[in-house]
Structure formats: C-alpha cells, structure tokens
C-alpha cells in the first residue's frame, strides 16, 4: 500500500514512467489487488486503453467476497468506473460496468450515467441530475456534471460558473474542472498558461500546446503512448481552428518545426506546416 501511494504521488506529479517502474519492482506479497488496480489506472492514463481494460477486468474477476469486494468497496467501484470508461472508448458494452460502479457508490460513475441519459434525451435524466445535486451538494464531480448539462443546452455562463465552483474545491475532480476552464479560455480567445502536471494524455497534450506556442522546452513522459498524445493534441488544434483561433494554431505550427524528436509527427499536425 505504501509503494502504491508513492507511485500515485509520482504519477500525480507527471512522472508516469517512474511510477510504473516502481509498481513493477513490487514483489508479489499478499493481495495483488491494490497494485494491479493502480497498474490499470496507469495504463489508462498512458493511452493503453485496451490493456487497461483487460487488466481491470482480470482484477475484478479475481475479486472474491473475502478480497476486494469485502475490504475495498471504494476501490472496486473506482476500478469498475475505469473499466466502463475504457470499454466505452473502445466501442464495447460499458453500461453494465457503469451501473455496477454506481451500485458500489462511485459518484463519478453516477455523474456519467446521468449525463448519458441527458445525451440520449431520457426524460427522467434531468430529474436524476436534480437528485444528484441535492444528495451530493457541493461535490465537485456533481458540479462538473451540472456544468456539462448546462453546456449541452447552450447555457455557457452557468456552465462556466459551475466549473469555477468545482475547481475551487481541492480534489482530483477540481483538477479536471481547471483543465476544462483552461481549454475554454483558449477557445474564447485568451491564452493562459497550462499549470497542471502532465498526469495523463489530455494534460500532456494541453502542456504540449502551451509549451510549443510559447517556444518553451517540452517532451512527454516516456510511458505515454506518442500516437495518443499526438491524436489528442490534434483534436485540441482542430477545436482551436473551429473557434477561430488561427493565431494560436499558426504559432504552434511555427514553433513545432524541428521538434519531431520530442513527439514524432508533431511538425505535420497542422496542414501545410
């Protein structure tokens, strides 16, 4: 447990390769659930979605009434949610996993389920959102879900206000809210510095945009899958173009020249660069 805590601490500072290596050196002593569930999380963060799903499902299959289920209910809920997100990205069946995670009390899974209902136009979804906000008043994940719901209805001001509230509550969810606020600021014409650690593919791509546009040194953590970083960075650049931020995209293209050693293919992300 101490080794896992140290690995998570290093990963949350953006040192994923070091965190992964630390877990890999752990001897097989006692229950492997804490270490293996953390490995699944690191695989997901790095862009190895298929591997993360396989690891998570195997760990969940190994869980017995005297193991993970009984003594680590929260961890089981977290792992089910991770598996559901991976399965969804891979186009596989994810709803049963999401519902199981909700049954284990995972608030993020419940938020995802509510937003899925709103996305599909389920009439009861808005009532479910209201209940969520009442039962988890002030929870940053619930505030983020409400922000996304407001944004889906074109209410940008309310959506931004809810994100700001979520970002002010110290938590992992608050970091997600800060990342979304940063992206919205860039889409809106501002260019604030990205100050969050590169803990996953999304934050690494945001860091890349920020550092390259400013002409600063940057290189992704070696544990991250380059193709995933490049694809996510390309999606950010496309969103900027769609928002009329040609200035930011041109600055990126100009400063990305000669940086293929940092991220293979970065110089060709912008057409004509």
How would you characterize this protein structure?
Helix 3 (33-46) packs antiparallel against helix 4 (49-62), helix 4 (49-62) packs antiparallel against helix 6 and helix 10 runs antiparallel to helix 11 (156-167). The protein is mostly helical and 273 residues long. The radius of gyration is 20 Å and the shape is globular. It contains 15 helices and no strands. 67% of the residues lie in helices and 0% in strands. Residues 65-71 have low confidence and may be disordered. Among the domains are: 1-105, Tetratricopeptide repeat domain (Serine Threonine Protein Phosphatase 5, Tetratricopeptide repeat, Alpha Horseshoe); 188-273, no CATH class. The longest helix is centred in the first third of the chain and has 17 residues, at 73-89.
Task: Write down the overall mean pLDDT.
Answer: 91
Structural class: mainly alpha
- Classified by CATH, the class of the domain at 1-105 is Mainly Alpha
Quickly count the helices. 15
Query: Strand-residue fraction?
Result: under 5%
Residue share in helix = 55-70%
- Count every beta strand, where a strand is a DSSP E run of 2 or more residues: 0
The unreliable regions are: 65-71
| CATH H-level superfamily of the domain at 1-105 | Tetratricopeptide repeat domain
What spatial form do the alpha-carbon principal axes imply?
globular
Helix and strand pattern: HHHHHHHHHHHHHHH
Distance between the termini: 48 Å
Radius of gyration (Å): 20 Å
Query: How is the CATH topology of the domain at 1-105 named?
Result: Serine Threonine Protein Phosphatase 5, Tetratricopeptide repeat
Biggest sheet record: none
Q: How does CATH name the architecture of the domain at 1-105? A: Alpha Horseshoe
């Amino acid at each position: 447990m101490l080794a896992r805590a140290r690995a998570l601490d290093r990963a949350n500072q953006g040192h994923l390769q070091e965190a992964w290596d630390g877990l890999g050196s752990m001897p097989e002593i006692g229950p492997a659930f804490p270490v293996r569930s953390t490995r699944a999380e690191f695989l997901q963060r790095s862009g190895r979605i298929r591997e993360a799903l396989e690891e998570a499902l195997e760990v969940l299959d190994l869980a017995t009434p005297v193991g993970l289920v009984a003594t680590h209910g929260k961890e089981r809920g977290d792992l089910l949610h991770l598996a559901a997100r991976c399965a969804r990205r891979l186009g596989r069946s994810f709803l049963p996993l999401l519902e199981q995670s909700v049954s284990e009390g995972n608030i993020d899974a419940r938020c995802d389920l509510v937003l899925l209902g709103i996305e599909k136009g389920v009439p009861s979804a808005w009532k479910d959102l209201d209940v969520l906000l009442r039962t988890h008043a002030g929870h940053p994940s619930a505030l983020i879900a409400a922000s996304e719901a407001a944004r889906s209805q074109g209410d940008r001001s309310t959506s931004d206000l809810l994100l700001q509230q979520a970002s002010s509550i110290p938590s992992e969810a608050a970091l997600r809210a800060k990342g979304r606020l940063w992206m919205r600021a860039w889409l809106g014409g501002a260019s604030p510095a990205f100050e969050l650690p590169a803990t996953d593919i999304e934050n690494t791509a945001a860091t890349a945009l920020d550092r390259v546009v400013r002409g600063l040194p940057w290189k992704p953590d070696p544990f991250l899958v380059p193709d995933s970083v490049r694809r996510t960075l390309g999606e950010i650049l496309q969103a900027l173009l769609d928002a009329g931020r040609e200035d930011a995209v041109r600055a990126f293209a100009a400063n990305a020249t000669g940086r293929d050693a940092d991220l293979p293919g970065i110089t060709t992300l912008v057409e004509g660069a």
